[in-house]
């Protein structure tokens, strides 16, 4: 019996030493290997399983960090480019004004517009940075989403009329209360409707519909433009994912709008969902918590 106990302890120690050496090798080489233990000892098997769980979590954290680093580098690169381009145009206009002595003409107006574009871009960049860092507190209250929808759509009346869009609006006359922030909701709806106008230019259609469910409310913004391929469906919400990957960079610009919109929606315990069949129907649905 004593011999069997000695052999068992010796075998266990050898297995533990083997696990220790393998873990050191994995740590030293950044290997994606896992611990393999061939033994009838149940405790050792469970130990190896838990170690492998930790290794898998560590690998996932590292992969997420690498993706975040790549995204951040891409953000800085794209932001630098997007700021540099309009500023170069501004400097060009100002040079022409200086040479021609045009003190208040068309060139000055164009320079002013480009400068405004830069300010808006910087504002979007810092808004997203604050949201992702958790530094932006959004005060929530009970709001009538129907009233906010009507007010927001009204702001697009002129452009929709000018572009000869068919507009289909289904917003209840009665109040529908949601948990949210007025400024954030207006910003989200402005973004979704503005995108619908741009993306739906070919289909010349914009739909706004409010759906009520037991615990949630949905505001559907629909266009019939080029749509978004399924492989890009989730990517469109990623920061700095621009539409030259799916639709058109000219349309999406810096790739921050939808990212900010979804961040704001999630801060209000909601979300933004997407369904798209190219050239048939593309719907961004703002999901909000019903009161």
Structure summary:
With 291 residues, the protein is α+β, with helices and mostly antiparallel strands. The protein has helices spanning 2-29, 42-100, 106-133, 145-154, 157-162, 182-199, 249-252, 257-267; strands at residues 141-144, 166-170, 177-180, 205-212, 216-223, 271-277, 281-289.
What does this structure look like?
With 291 residues, the protein is an alpha+beta fold. 56% of the residues lie in helices and 15% in strands. The chain is built from eight helices and seven strands. It has helices at 2-29, 42-100, 106-133, 145-154, 157-162, 182-199, 249-252, 257-267; strands at residues 141-144, 166-170, 177-180, 205-212, 216-223, 271-277, 281-289. Strands 2-4-5-7-6 form a five-stranded mixed sheet, covered by helices on one side. A two-stranded antiparallel sheet has the order 1-3. The longest helix has 59 residues, at 42-100. It is extended, with a radius of gyration of 28 Å. The chain starts with a helix and ends with a strand. The relative contact order is 0.09. Residues 244-253 have low confidence and may be disordered.
Contiguous uncertain segments of 5+ residues: 244-253
- Compute the number of helices: 8
The radius of gyration over CA amounts to 28 Å
Sequence of secondary-structure elements: HHHEHHEEHEEHHEE
What percent of residues are in strands? 15-25%
- Strand order within the widest beta sheet: 2-4-5-7-6
Structural class: alpha+beta
Mean pLDDT: 81
- Strand element count: 7
Q: Helicity, in percent?
A: 55-70%
Biggest beta sheet attributes: 5 strands, mixed
Give the N-terminus to C-terminus distance in angstroms: 71 Å
């Amino acid at each position: 019996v004593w011999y069997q106990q000695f052999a068992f302890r010796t075998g266990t120690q050898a297995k533990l030493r083997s696990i220790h050496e393998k873990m050191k090798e994995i740590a030293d080489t950044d290997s994606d290997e896992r611990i393999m233990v061939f033994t009838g000892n149940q405790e050792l098997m469970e130990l190896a399983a838990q170690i492998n769980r930790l290794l898998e979590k560590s690998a996932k954290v590292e992969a997420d960090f690498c993706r975040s680093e790549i995204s951040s580098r891409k953000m800085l690169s794209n932001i630098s480019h997007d700021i540099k381009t309009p500023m170069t145009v501004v400097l060009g206009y100002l040079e022409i004004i200086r040479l021609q002595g045009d003190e208040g003409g068309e060139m000055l107006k164009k320079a002013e517009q480009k400068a405004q574009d830069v300010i808006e871009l910087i504002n979007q960049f810092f808004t997203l940075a604050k949201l992702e860092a958790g530094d932006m507190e959004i005060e929530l209250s009970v709001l009538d989403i129907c009233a906010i929808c009507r007010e927001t759509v009204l702001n697009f009346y002129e452009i929709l009329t000018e572009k000869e869009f068919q507009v289909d609006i289904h917003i209840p006359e009665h109040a529908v209360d949601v948990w949210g922030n007025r400024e954030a909701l207006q910003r989200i709806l402005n973004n979704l409707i503005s995108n619908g106008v741009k993306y739906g230019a070919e289909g010349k259609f914009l739909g706004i519909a409010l759906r009520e469910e037991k615990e949630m409310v949905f505001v559907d913004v629909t266009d019939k433009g080029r749509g978004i391929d399924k492989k890009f469906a989730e990517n469109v919400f990623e920061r700095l994912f621009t539409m030259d990957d799916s639709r058109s960079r000219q349309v999406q610009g810096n790739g921050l709008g939808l990212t900010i919109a979804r961040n704001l929606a999630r801060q209000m315990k909601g979300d933004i969902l997407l369904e798209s069949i190219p050239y048939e129907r593309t719907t961004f649905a703002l999901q909000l918590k019903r009161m």
